[in-house]
Amino acid sequence: MSSTQSLPKVRTLMLTLSVFIMTACDISQLNNPYPEADHGQSILYSSFAERPKHLDPAVAYSSDEYGFICQIYEPPLQYHYLKRPYQLQPLTAAEMPEVRYLDKQGNALAETASDTEVAFSEYLISIKPGIEFQPHPAFSQSEPGRYLYHALSKEQLAAIDTLADLPVQQSRSLTAEDYVYQIKRLAYAKIQSPIAELMAGYIDGFSEFTRQTAAVDIADLKNQNLRGVEAVNEHAYRIRIKGKYPQFEYWLAMPFFAPMPWEADAFYDQPGLKNKNITLDWFPIGTGPFWLKENNPNRRMVLAKNPHYHADFYPTDGDPGDKEAGLLNDAGKLLPFVDKVVYTLEKETIPYWAKFLQGYYDASGIASDSFDQAVQFSGSGDPLLTPMMRDKQIQLHTSVATSIFYMGFNMLDPVLGGAGEASRKLRQAIAIAVDYEEFIAIFANGRGLAAQGALPPGIFGYRDGAAGINPVVYDWLNGKPQRKAIEKARQLLAEAGYPNGIDPKTGQALLLYFDTTATGSDDKALMNWYRKQFEKLGIQLVIRGTDYNRFQEKMRTGAAQIFVWGWNADYPDPENFFFLLYGPNSKVGQGGENAGNYANPEFDRLFEKMRNMDNGPERQIIIDRMQDILRRDAPWLFGYYPKDFALLHSWYQNLKPARMINNRLKYSRVDTDLREQKRQEWNQAEFWPLLLGFVLLAVAFLPAVKAYRRRQQETQS
Amino acid sequence: MMSYVIRRILYALPLLLAVNVLTFVLFFVVNSPDDMARMQLGQKRVTEQAIQNWKHQHGYDLPLLWNAEQTGGKQLSETIFYQKSINLFLFDFGLSDSGRNIGSDIRQRMWPSLALALPSLIVGLSVNITLALLVVLFRNTYVELGSSVLLVMLMSVSSLFYIIGGQFLIGKLLKLVPISGYDDGWAAIKFLILPVIISVVAGIGSGVRWYRSLFLEEVERDYVRTARAKGLSETQVLFKHVLKNAMIPILTGVVVVLPLLFMGSLIMESFFSIPGLGSYTIDAINRQDFSIVRAMVFLGSVLYIAGLLLTDISYTLVDPRVRLS
After folding, report:
1. Segment A195-250, tens digit of pLDDT
2. Which of B105, B68, B107, B62 is nearest to B85 (CA)?
3. Are the Cβ atoms of B275 and A345 closer than 8 angstroms?
4. Residue B154 and residue B212: Cα distance in Å, rounded?
5. Contacts B48 to A, Cβ<8 Å
6. What are the residue ranges of helices labelled H in B138-188?
7. What is the DSSP-derived secondary structure letter of residue A329?
8. With a cut of 0.85, is the ipTM above it?
9. Contact A99, A334 (CB under 8 A)
10. Are A358 and A683 in contact (CB under 8 A)?
């Protein structure tokens, strides 16, 4: 009886399931993480793994922070988007700065004046008229001079959670004073700009200004006079530099020198806003192509097109090959191309990669976990996309970064350091033995170029081909550098006084110490590899794993012996790499960036000469000499220049990889129709495995249910 | 009961102080104020002067626990410990070392944590209890044997496997829900389905075994035999009588974790990019932000103590024989 009653139920259930399955077949993008309202909009989707620490351009100094603020703030100069080597060009400046040299009395000198004659360099920067800041409550006035929100009452503060809660948002024109004010902020001790001490060495009056404003409230900062920086008129300002410092123009392309309206500090300095995490460090005020519409660093950050953005156009010329690559398709068009950029917090690489493959991120780097899925190498060693990536029409862009990872020796160490012949030969032997080509293949998935010197490609002074190899470590064979045989390293080691790696003092294998923060289980393979490289020479390498803090302390005190370090260029000039080896910059004693404490009087003298020179044959000769000195002294194993691999979906256009160019989002274009089509195609939900699972479960339980019912019936009867 | 509650709160004060001292000592054994400054200032062009400035501005230029240069009460109060800890007892968490208001961050981030933890708890509890009762119902059959083997297997699998496997299967292969992310309001539901399912599945092995053992103890009791003798079906016996009488140990386990739901799940939040307090704590530890670490440890201690207190109180509600005095 019960079985006949349950038949209609079963039929209804089957019918419902059929309808569900048929409906489900049409469902796509159930996994879409974005709101329905985003559909069809010109939005670029990206992610961030860690919230930026600072968005104040006076403080921010890391690449993840620049990813945001360089779209918002505009320094006077920028790099040409397409041309390599990097070329500076005006951004908000009307033209490149006018530079004139002065003697101690302030008299103008000829351009050809020698370094010793030049007491000051003056940079006159004229800015384009008509540039407006983004709308912001800091500018809002009820009448001229009466700011609506500079003194918020308790009642007003209670009603505010975000800046959007302040209804009146006005703008104003950019003036030269805004640039001057930002330089004052760099010097203001309470802001703690990381380049304050560096600039104190260059900008006239900078240190005095820091002392003079130590007790001054930030609200009064604009009224303080900074001797070396002044607004000449509404659209021009002048910066006076001590001596000659040609690299200063590169600094003018960094957000440190972007304009800051005084109203920003007057507004954000209110304690009530700070308590609500509404600060200049989190809510920028800029003139750039985008403004930070939503800042929830715990979840999502959204850049929206600045409605007041000035006329700015896509470049009309580039490098050979750019036109063929489609990078000039938008030549001369008004920027920016996308309306919004949505950054979503994505802490783990696995979901990030999966979302990229589903089309929910427009571009991606390649984590080592997913490298094999994305890239394979051809017989000639060129990176190629895997068939899966090609099926999805994903594009691969590679470029050598203006960075270097090197293995450094502490030159104060009694065994490895010093300028003596024995220690030099020991370092040279190690340089040959540690096979960085193998390192790149195993640990960097081929994403690197073995370094031949301190300068990576793209930096003036870098030499390609036979002229650019490190003759201590490589020979030029068959049109490419070939690492010298290990026998050569052993010979050098013997000449250094360690035949077969035996330390004559102990009669045992020479013991060397490698200090590292790589202490995780994932790092074991790498550490074993380092050991094996030294074992080739019979040297025993002791790994001293330590936490980051202790490692830093060892470096500061000169207690480390061998270490691995890296450097990302601030600007594309050889000075920004060679200063890492300049004696007066040593880490021990000076606290500088010369981590290995290398000091060579000839190198230092050449560095002092080279740093103030314009690029040209004479500078190249000096750079070549400096490279030769470094290759001979071997204070570093030059390691490798990392290669950036970027994957772009077919709908992402106009991306030319370049680490130096941080304001590149304005050039990016997205084909939203194509993206929508691909997303639909790639994200059809699959229900049948779930249903199958349920059926299997039911089948497994059915005998037990029957047995239970039988037992119940028996008990009741 | 009120006097009991007040007494427990007073007992909690020295406990919280001790937790605070311990956190402080452990943190500063590993990190010096100089290390913290370096971490905050970044790696490029950090000078000694910049470090001193940072310490001064953030109040880390004082001695740690005892200021020998001061006299009287200032020897204690002019220290990093006093300056950073005393306001905690007023639930004023102050600013993080990166300058954000911690209280505001906590208020914002506890809701996503709760949005994940509460459904996980409720659904997990319901599923575990139901499955445990079913296993007991089918005791002495192949279902019980198979279930026991399966439960041990489920217990043995790492929670990371559930997360990655779940994301791969449901998010990537079946494409039924977003793999990770979060949104405000009701839009958060589609992001919570997967982590909740994974939390529940990951907890089935241990949960069901625990409840099964509770129920097995109960089914042998006299009142169960009486209920059966009255002619009640086995399902009625289990779901009405056994479940009700097993509530005390269930409550003990559940009530104590209720306040801690606000603290979030460290791994889940990180893998699913849920902006809760679990990932907030992990990030703070990674960034050596002492202000956040001490605030979160303090809050965790307070909530744990509150959980224990609530457990005691809940005993009186489910078992009238228990009196708090």
Report:
1. 998 999 999 999 999 999 999 999 999 999 999 999 999 999 999 999 999 999 99
2. B62
3. yes
4. 15
5. 591
6. 142-156, 159-166
7. T
8. no
9. no
10. yes
B234–A708 CB contact, under 8 Å: yes
Cβ-nearest to B138 among A190, A298, A708 = A708
Cα B123–chain centre separation:
17
The beta-carbon neighbor of A192 closest among B35, B54, B179 is B54
Integer CA distances (angstroms), A364 to A292, A396, A645, in order: 22, 10, 9
- Tokens coding A443: 């640990």
Helix extents (H) in A558-645 = 575-578, 587-590, 601-610, 617-633
CA distance A53 to chain B (A): 7
Whether A138 and A264 have beta carbons less than 8 Å apart is answered as: yes
User: Count of A–B CB contacts within 8 Å?
Assistant: 152
In the numeric block, the tokens 């300028």 are attached to A419
For residue A584, what are its two tokens? 């007066």
Q: Are B59 and B84 contacting, i.e. CB atoms less than 8 angstroms apart?
A: yes
> Which residues sit opposite A78 in a β-bridge?
A89
Q: Quick one: DSSP state of residue A94?
A: S
d(CA B314, CA B255): 8
Show residues of chain A in contact with B166, CB under 8 Å: none
Do the bridges between strand A403-409 and strand A562-568 make them parallel or antiparallel, or are there none, so unpaired? antiparallel
Residue whose entry in the numeric block shows the structure tokens 């909009």:
A41
**pLDDT at residue A19 greater than cutoff 80:** no
**CA–CA separation, A137 vs A383, rounded Å?**
50
**H-helix segments, A536-596:** 548-557, 575-578, 587-590
Highest average pLDDT, of A71-80, B11-20, B24-33, B73-82, comes from A71-80
Residue among A294, A347, A298, A345 nearest B111 (CA): A298
Measured between CB atoms, which of A53, A189, A298 is closest to B109? A298
Question: Which of A35, A348, A689 is the closest to B271 by Cβ?
Answer: A348
With beta carbons less than 8 A apart as the criterion, state whether B111 and B64 touch: no
Interface test with B, best of A299, A352, A355, A576 (most B CBs within 10 A): A299
What is the Cα–Cα distance from A694 to A568, expressed in whole angstroms? Answer: 54
pLDDT above 90 for B310:
no
**What is the per-residue pLDDT across A533-589, written as a single tens digit (0 to 9) for each?**
999 999 999 999 988 878 888 999 999 999 999 999 999 999 999 999 999 999 998
- Which is nearest to A443 in space by CA: A323, A543, A523? A523
Global pTM reads 0.86
Determine the residue type at A184: K
